[in-house]
Design a protein that fits this description.
- The complex is a heterodimer.
- By secondary structure, chain A is α/β, with parallel strands linked by helices.
- Chain A has 8 helices and 9 strands.
- The radius of gyration of chain A is 19 Å and the shape is globular.
- The model of chain A has no long low-confidence stretch (mean pLDDT 94).
- Chain B contains 11 helices and 11 strands.
- Chain B starts with a strand and ends with a strand.
- The chains are: A alpha/beta, B alpha/beta.
- At the A-B interface, helix 1 and helix 2 of A face helix 2, helix 3 and helix 7 of B.
- The complex binds zinc ion (ZN).
- The site of zinc ion has 6 residues of chain B, from helix 4.
């Protein structure tokens, strides 16, 4: 894709880095905030694989357009629980390949920060399971100043004074609100418009997308065997 | 006479990302156009077995490039594809989900029908890509790191009945475990096969699981064999003797091949079936194929073994199942298709 500036872009946004199966079609113009034309969001951590494509098609059906009308795709790249996260990434990638459209990965907390739009320092924390959160910090201008990381809420709480944040958003912030002790912004999951806004500069410039790589932050659980297991007593 | 149709197959149930492309010719026969596989087997080697998360990560990385290579190899564009088949089970949950999600996206983008199919049916269908249509009924012996089962195949597009299966380890799993006992690398099949060629298969009488007169006729058990090998080697080591590794490998391999072929041939005779297909990663084992050939010939059974490349997991075999479904006029699976890690072999397609 060469850098041809576009006027209005029709963007398909998807995210599966949280329990929300998120899909939406968003119109992006250079001079105004992204406009959500249709969206489908179902909160079900086990249904990403089943619901994502039906959600995508339902959005397009609602506005009477075909998938081929989409100019670009934006996909939340996590961090998030791996199995669900991969559904969104591979779906976005395969759609982009089949439609010959660019796919822009955006860190999922960036979209949440845009949705929260507090104008102050903000902590975004999502549920990483195993009693941990994925988190990132944003400055008053909305720029990511730290993260994303994965950490126990208590350890994150100790760092909060150095992060310059005045409020928190995301499901992880809600789950561990007592430990974190920050006022909550009622934004739990990323919205299609937030995802598109997070990639707006690249989208409008038709920039070459970055690699479609999930932000795993954790290594796979795997233990190398040491020696061999005996079946008889030595 | 019907028009030619191109079927795409996607496989991601274990540690191979496969994309295969098959053409249904005017006369209904299948032509293999592409069979691209990316394997993560080396990433699992140091763990001595497939690590599901490592496999899933590798599938995500490999999916688009493998598709790209397959389309290039076949010289077709995605828009030329008539329908898409994908492994919906059985297999590793997270791994299956990558392939099924990709397949749904391709199907939605192209507006083409999607078929969620059974991986085990794929192993049987693989043979039709090399040796043509299968007679009905036929018997299939599937042996790999993940499965050991005996199937009665009446219709690749619908009627497959499991008449026997392993009650514990898969045959390939036993190879991997015995390889560890003998300090051989993972996966254990190829190094044990190689070593066994220098040994005597009759040197040690390892047990043949489930071969008593009261045991299930067509079921397999390899756990006792694996433990017997470990005990034998440990006893040897304890008494300070040098372990005759080649004899151990050959005798273990003999026990596996003996049980598998004896039960398969017996089932064919009992059921009056004259064709046996052996497929799956272990089908490439030299002793298994030699003994199967010998016993099938003696019993008047026609033996079919696809080439090794088609025996191991691949996308072409999934495209072959899809092609059989398309040819049979099966209804496609919906785009709400869910994976089923424990999908029984009797379910050829998830509707
Ligand atoms: Zn297999």
């Amino acid at each position: 894709m060469m850098a041809v500036p576009l006027t209005t872009v029709l963007v398909l946004a998807i995210d599966t880095a949280t329990p929300a199966v998120t899909a939406g079609v968003v119109q992006l113009d250079p001079d105004s905030a992204p406009v959500t034309l249709a969206q489908r969001v179902t909160v079900d951590a086990k249904a990403h694989g089943e619901l994502l494509i039906p959600h995508v098609l339902a959005c397009l059906a609602e506005i009477g357009r075909e998938l081929s009308a989409v100019d670009a795709i934006v996909c939340g790249s996590g961090p998030g629980p791996f199995t669900g996260l991969r559904v969104g990434m591979v779906t976005a990638g395969a759609l982009g390949q089949a439609l010959d459209r660019p796919v822009y990965p955006v860190p999922t907390p960036d979209a949440l920060a845009i949705d929260a739009n507090t104008g102050h320092g903000l902590l975004v924390a999502t549920d990483a399971r195993r009693r941990e959160v994925y988190w990132a910090a944003y400055d008053a201008a909305g720029r990511r100043s730290n993260g994303p990381h994965v950490e126990r809420p208590a350890e994150l709480a100790e760092k909060l004074p150095t992060l310059g944040v005045a409020a928190a958003a995301g499901e992880g912030a809600e789950l561990y609100a007592e430990v974190l002790g920050l006022p909550l912004v009622p934004v739990k999951y990323p919205s299609p418009a937030g995802l598109v806004a997070a990639a707006a500069v690249e989208l409008l410039a038709s920039a070459r997308p970055g690699p479609l790589t999930p932000l795993y932050l954790r290594r796979p659980d795997a233990i190398e065997p040491v020696g061999r297991k005996r079946v008889t007593r030595p | 006479m019907s028009r030619e149709r191109i079927v795409l197959g996607i496989e991601s149930s274990c540690d191979e990302t496969g994309v295969g492309i098959v053409r249904i010719r005017h006369d209904g026969t299948l032509e293999l156009l592409a069979d691209e596989v990316a394997s993560s087997v080396e990433e699992h080697a140091r763990f001595g077995g497939v690590v599901p998360e490592v496999a899933s990560r590798a599938h995500l990385e490999a999916m688009l490039p493998t598709m790209h290579r397959a389309l290039g190899a076949a010289g077709v564009a995605l828009k030329d594809v008539h329908s898409i088949a994908v492994t919906a089970g059985p297999g590793l949950a997270g791994a299956l989900l990558v392939g099924v999600s990709a397949a749904k996206a391709y199907a939605a983008a192209l507006g083409k029908p999607l078929y969620g199919v059974n991986h085990l049916a794929g192993h049987v269908a693989a043979d039709t890509l090399e040796h043509g249509p299968l007679p009905s009924p036929c018997l299939a012996l599937l042996v790999s790191g993940g499965h050991s089962s005996l199937l009665l195949v009446e219709d690749l597009a619908g009627k497959i009945t499991e008449i026997g299966a392993t009650v514990d380890d898969a045959a390939g799993e036993a190879y991997d475990k015995v390889a560890r006992v003998l300090d051989l690398p993972y996966p254990g099949g190829p190094p044990i096969d190689k070593l066994a060629k220098q040994g005597n298969g009759c040197a040690i009488a390892f047990p043949r699981g489930l071969t008593g007169s009261r045991d299930a006729k067509y079921d397999f058990s390899f756990s006792g064999l694996k433990t017997a090998v470990a005990r034998w080697v440990e006893r040897c080591e304890r008494s300070g003797e040098q372990v005759p590794v080649a004899d151990v490998a050959a005798s273990f391999q003999e026990a596996v091949a003996d049980v598998l072929t004896a039960k398969a041939v017996r089932a064919a005779k009992d059921l009056g079936v004259d064709t046996l297909v052996i497929s799956g990663g272990v089908a490439a084992n030299s002793r298994l194929s030699a003994l199967a050939a010998q016993r099938c010939e003696a019993a008047g059974i026609h033996l079919r073994v696809p080439r090794p490349r088609l025996c191991t997991d691949n996308g072409a075999m999934i495209a072959a199942v899809g092609a059989h479904l398309v040819a049979a006029g099966a209804e496609p699976s919906g785009l709400e298709l869910a994976t089923d890690p424990g999908l029984p072999v009797s379910t050829v397609q998830i509707v």
